[in-house]
Design brief:
Order of helices and strands: EHEEEEEHHEHEHEEEHHHHHHHHH
Low-confidence stretches: 324-331
Mean pLDDT: 89
Radius of gyration: 23 Å
Structural class: alpha/beta
Distance between the termini: 53 Å
Shape: globular
């Protein structure tokens, strides 16, 4: 059985970790498989439009390509990294044209971070669910409405198409590829060597920034936003907010949803989750205290909201993200 060929195209404006992370996982698996005398592993090749040479990453790091973008031959896994260079690609970009052709010769097509943009530009994600870095999920969905963009998953598999979230999620995805190809024991060993989760708990939401919507043009809806952000622990039920801004409940709910893009109750809960996240990150408060101060009232209500929106419970979130001075676990 031959080695599994993995082709990683690189370009100016690449996010280097999108390529380096999966490379380390796949080559680590290859070394392990050779050591235990098991089946062959992976042969990873960097290619670029400018043939063998170097490209400059977003951070200024230079990566060396092993050769040009191949126009023939079968490809095991085609792995497309992200970065500013990927986000700017359009359907008529020469690289996207090459990607469209190369995908027909690939057993598996993978994107990391904003590498989903060239995949979408090539039409490879049409009709599929896909993910990307949470910060660029809305832009991807807007630019390519035929793609069902899911902003929270760390990675998604749709048949032979895999997409991963931002930057280090390429490691998670590569571990999943190894598990699919060689089993959980090999993938788990590599995860331990890299000191990462084989399957990290929660999704991208736990890393995302706080909710932010531009102030509504309508003064009454903008006033409601100010009330919500000004005191998230206040009574922010729809009847109360509607009365505070001088509108009927039905009219307020309709106008708020139209202006903000989400119902008022949904918006309030997300703001409260963001407040609770900041408290858990920066202050050694009890979960019950964080729940009260952020407006949830009870720890159980906050826990359910965290599981829905963040993917982990509040005490788990604090263990991952609390600042060094507040890492002692409290419940």
């Amino acid at each position: 059985m031959p080695e599994h060929d993995v082709l990683i195209p690189v370009f100016d404006g690449i996010q280097p970790l999108d390529a380096a992370g999966p490379h380390e996982v796949l080559m680590g698996a290859t070394r392990l498989l050779a050591l235990i005398g098991s089946e062959p592993g992976y042969r990873v090749t960097f290619v670029a439009a400018a043939a063998a040479g170097t490209v400059t990453s977003d951070s200024g790091m230079r990566l060396c390509a092993d050769g040009p973008l191949p126009e023939s031959g079968q490809i095991g896994t085609l792995l497309v990294p992200g970065g500013s260079g990927a986000r700017g690609m359009t359907p008529d970009d020469p690289f996207v044209g090459w990607l469209r052709r190369a995908a027909t010769r690939s057993a598996r097509v993978v994107s990391v971070c904003t590498g989903a943009f060239p995949l979408a530009a090539a039409g490879l994600l049409d009709g599929l669910s896909a993910t990307t870095h949470w910060r660029y999920a809305h832009a991807l969905a807007t630019a390519y409405p035929a793609v069902d963009v899911q902003p929270d998953p760390i990675y998604l598999r749709q048949g032979r198409i895999w997409t991963a979230a931002g930057v280090t999620a390429g490691v998670d995805l590569a571990l999943a590829l190894v598990e699919a190809d060689h089993g959980v024991d090999v993938a788990q060993f590599i995860a331990r060597e890299l000191v990462v989760f084989l399957r990290r708990p929660g999704g991208q939401s736990q890393f995302a920034g706080p909710v932010w919507s531009p102030p509504a043009r309508q003064p009454s809806i903008r006033a409601a936003q100010d009330l919500i952000h000004g005191d998230p622990a206040a009574d922010l039920r729809v009847p109360v907010l509607a009365a505070r801004v001088g509108m009927s409940e039905r009219h307020f709910s309709r106008e708020f949803t139209r202006a903000i893009g989400r119902p008022p109750g949904d918006y309030v809960e997300q703001v409260r989750v963001d407040v609770a996240k900041r408290l858990l990150e920066s202050e050694p408060v009890l979960v019950t205290v964080a729940a009260a101060r952020s407006g949830f009232g009870t720890a159980e209500t906050m826990r359910r909201a965290f599981l829905r929106r963040v993917g982990v419970a509040p005490d788990q979130y604090r263990r991952y993200f609390a600042t060094a001075s507040h890492t002692a676990e409290r419940t």
